[in-house]
Amino acid sequence: MKKTRATIRTYRHGLGDCHLITLRGKGKAAYRILIDCGVILGTPDAKAVMTRVMDDVVKESKGKVDLLVATHEHWDHVSGFGQAAESFARLQVDKVWMAWTEDPDDEGARELAQSKGQALKLLQGAALHLQGFGDVQQTPLFLSLAEFFGAAGRVTTKSALEAVRAKALPGEPRYCRPEDPPVELAKYGARIYVLGPPRDVALLKRLNPKANTDEGYDHALGLFNADIKPLLEQGEADNQAPFAAMDGLAIADARKHGFFAQTYFDGPEWRRIDADWMLAADSLALALDNMTNNTSLVLAIELGGEDVLLFAADAQVGNWMSWPACHWEVGGKTVTGEDLMRRTTFYKVGHHGSHNATLKERGLELMDSLQTAVIPVDQEMAKTKKWGAMPLAPLVSALQKKTASKGFVVRTDRDLPPGANEAGIVSTPEYVEISV
Ligand SMILES: [Zn+2]
Fold it and tell me: How many angstroms separate the CA atoms of 429 and 319, rounded?
């Protein structure tokens, strides 16, 4: 039997990511990598859930991981570092990696933070404005997305990320850039490449595939409308009102005014635009959300100079587009991102299997060696959170086609597919584990 070179334990704790990877060396030597630890806001008993996950990480790793990776600043990837603080405190960490987009000393990262700050300000302005209506029928999407960046109790995405940073030794964390040489783990026959996020901030803002790349699965679904960019570029929430302030009347005042009360508030519904124009805020919130996904740190772990384990975090189109052209000099030879994608045997599916997080052309199309795809997802929760079709059925079929006769597509919210257990994939209520 072939020796196990690595095991990937992916937790089944809900809508969120937590992966413990163990690289096997000679004898009992083991190199442990923890990638993310979070669950979506609104998960019942989240603190208890994430504590159980972190306790298992501590137990399985014997209290020490060699490498801790926080892929991006989203609650469903980092919440556990705060929610399970006591268990996390028991985990010894050797190295900490984050994406260059988290580097406070990087100019591009600062530019991005500024864009995000501006967008958040706009959304806060929109939220305040909305309060003036008082009786809006349902919570707009952007408010539920805004909570994504916000707080649950005393833990925020920022504070959870700080908890990760606090584990770093002086001179760390390493802020990973795709142009960095791969990290050699000779003892384990492994090499870790950084594929993304791309250094080009314009690409990070790129959330849409080209219209003409849409073929099999629905790339076009949920594409963002044309007014996102102007929204991102404008600074003031006031500019988003349909009319200038001097032409306007406060909602509360208008209600008291006979003409407006009769004609609009008590009149037929079609005369009011209410908060409809705030659909733009929904688009902006989505864009902001996806831009943050695009800052995902993407790692390719090469085993024995052949097979590649690809961890795509929540990378969106702009991030994916940059991978094939990445290149490194290794032992006098050039290795390209395209090579690594072609040699990918294990793929941690991007963004819980959403529509715009697995590029088809120059993405999945390249992955001819793919054997196993793992989708960390909770379809019911995604529905509740209005995250759309997660996982997207055509993507699941595309992955099944790609892995057919070679392996399996494993979802964390479902039982293993037929034959997977016999093929050595382990599934417990807490996790799935794949050995390669
Ligand atoms: Zn996510």
Answer: 33
